[in-house]
Amino acid sequence: MNWHFIGRLQSNKTRRALLLSDWIHSVDSLALARQLSTVAVQENCSPRVLLQVKLRADPAKTGWSPTELETQLPELVQLLNVRGLMTIAPFGQASLDLFQELAHWSARWRGTYPQLTELSMGMSGDYPLAVQAGSTMVRLGQAIFGLRPPQLGV
Fold first, then answer.
1. Which residues pair with residue 118 across a beta bridge?
2. Helix (H, G, I), strand (E, B) or coil at 3
3. What is the pLDDT of residues 6-59, one digit of tens each?
4. How far apart are CA 3 and CA 85, in angstroms?
5. Under a CB-based contact definition with an 8 Å cutoff, are residues 2 and 22 in contact?
6. Using CA atoms, how far apart are residues 4 and 25, in angstroms rounded to an integer?
7. What are the domain boundaries of the chain?
8. Third-level CATH fold of 4-142
9. Are 78 and 49 in contact (CB under 8 A)?
10. For the segment 53-96, what is each residue's pLDDT rounded down to a tens digit?
11. Stretch (H or E) spanning 121
12. What angle do CA 3, 58, 114 make, to 5 degrees?
């Protein structure tokens, strides 16, 4: 069985995430990648990671712009077992074009980094578009578990 860590990873939770997960889907900064690398060496583990790409302006999302990621990829693939890219469409803005854009960047970089074989994109509401664009992983929590109950006091 493979366990996947999905969601925003806080730097103070890196050790726990590394020890419990075979995959980490949401590496969203060079600082976090460096922290994960340090802890992975200490714990003698090497989970597969996906780098989060932010393709559209959205204050609720984190990640690299494609141009930022392109400059940092050489260091990132040295630090971690990078296996691909992931993105989340801004709420209500999923489109085939957005997912095809990530697939384009992945194909472009795969010439230099052949290990970038995975594309994690698409959630319960937009996964058909993501699959059409080449997604290899989709996140279907709501389709399986239903809507989350509202959080009080948040």
1. 84
2. coil
3. 888 988 999 999 999 999 998 999 999 999 999 999 999 999 999 999 998 888
4. 17
5. yes
6. 7
7. 4-142
8. TIM Barrel (3.20.20)
9. no
10. 999 888 888 899 999 999 999 999 999 999 999 998 887 777 88
11. strand 118-123
12. 50
